[in-house]
Amino acid sequence: MDEKEKIKNIASKDPLEQALLKGQGISGLKADEKRVFLGQYRERVIIALSTDQVEHPGTYPEVNEAIKHPRASKLILNRHADLDKASEYIELARKESIEFTTISSMQKDTHIGLIVAADNAVDIEDVFVEDLGDRFKKAGLDPKLLNFIGHKVCRKCYNKIKEKTPDLLHLFEQSTFLDKITGSEKCC
Question: 46 and 111 share a domain?
Answer without folding.
Answer: yes
